[in-house]
Design brief:
Order of helices and strands: EEHHHHHHHEEHHH
Strand order of the largest sheet: 1-2
Strand content: 5-15%
Helix content: over 70%
CATH architecture: Up-down Bundle
Number of domains: 1
CATH class: Mainly Alpha
CATH superfamily: Rhodopsin 7-helix transmembrane proteins
CATH topology: Rhopdopsin 7-helix transmembrane proteins
Length: about 300
């Protein structure tokens, strides 16, 4: 947080000590909670996801399985979410409200773009991993030809290419705007939307995200893991309870940790201005839950 008593880039130098604290900064409890959870997520998730990538890429050839290829893709996406999203949120929480200080216009565009690339590619990587597990367990004969490292690499390439292209409009739609506060006495650069939030471009992206990267994956995960659980319960495999428990955790965490954020952006894109969700706690917590999902993924999938 800045300790300056005045901000020089304002229209007229302003004495910050004369402004109520909560009009300039987020509340101390909110800043502490958000910063602490972000730091924990970043520390745990960065180490966990990086270890997954390093272990698979540096291990012997026998470690290079289709499953591990998908886990590397998932970990790479989660690293982007954790690093870009957490650093952005921590900075946001401990700066003057809406004051963008992370690299000007390019920093704003890349932060928004990379966050969406990471979040959406993570969802698709989870789905691809789950499809591979379903085929391997429920159709072991077909898996010998369908679940190969070569095919996994092609699918991963397609997932990332789609994520990079699909989210590219954010490079244009995100921009720096000069936000005027206190009757023009304070003017700060803010990272926001190029157009009004009700613009059709934003609505299309938000609703597309909800369907493509949450509803469809959730339905597929539920169906495939239900079929996997049925197959496992019909066998005498000693690891059956552990595997079924892991599958249940995957579906529940994906559904719960992503729901608040997906609902927030989809609802606010279609709701009239006076009816949108504006609770700061809700917005912050929904973002923290997404980052938490990226932090726990390596623990879940490698348990």
């Amino acid at each position: 947080m800045s300790t300056m008593s005045t901000i020089e880039d304002a229209a007229t130098p302003l004495d910050l000590s004369s402004i109520p604290y909560l009009e300039l900064y987020y509340s101390i409890p909110m800043r502490l909670v958000a910063s602490l959870i972000c730091a924990i997520n970043l520390g745990v998730g960065f180490i966990g996801n990086l270890l997954v990538i390093l272990v698979v890429l540096t291990a012997k050839a026998r470690m290079l399985t289709p499953t591990n290829c998908y886990l590397v893709s998932l970990s790479a996406a989660d690293l982007i979410v954790l690093v870009v999203g957490s650093v952005s949120l921590i900075t946001e929480m401990n700066s003057v409200r809406d004051h963008w200080i992370l690299g000007g216009l390019v920093g704003c565009q890349m932060t928004v773009y990379l966050t969406y690339v990471g979040v959406n590619t993570s969802a698709f990587s989870i789905t691809a991993f789950s499809v591979e597990r379903y085929i391997a367990i429920c159709h072991p004969i077909s898996a010998q030809t369908a679940c190969t490292v070569k095919r996994a690499k092609r699918i991963i390439f397609g997932v990332w290419l789609f994520g990079l292209v699909y989210n590219s409009p954010w490079i244009y739609l995100a921009m720096i705007k000069q936000k005027s506060m206190f009757n023009g006495s304070l003017v700060l650069p803010a990272c926001g939307h190029r157009y009004n939030r009700s613009n059709g471009a934003y609505m299309s992206l938000y609703l597309g995200d909800l369907v493509l990267f949450y509803l469809i994956p959730l339905v597929l995960l539920t169906i495939m893991y239900s079929l996997i659980a049925r197959i496992l319960f019909g066998t005498d495999r000693p690891a059956r309870p552990q595997v079924v428990k892991m599958l249940l955790v995957v579906v529940v965490l994906f559904a719960l940790l992503w729901l608040p954020y997906r609902f927030l952006v989809a609802y606010n894109s279609i709701a009239p201005a006076g009816y949108r969700i504006s609770s700061e706690w809700y917005v912050i917590i929904s973002r923290l839950l997404v980052y938490s999902n990226s932090a726990v993924n390596p623990v879940i999938y490698n348990a």
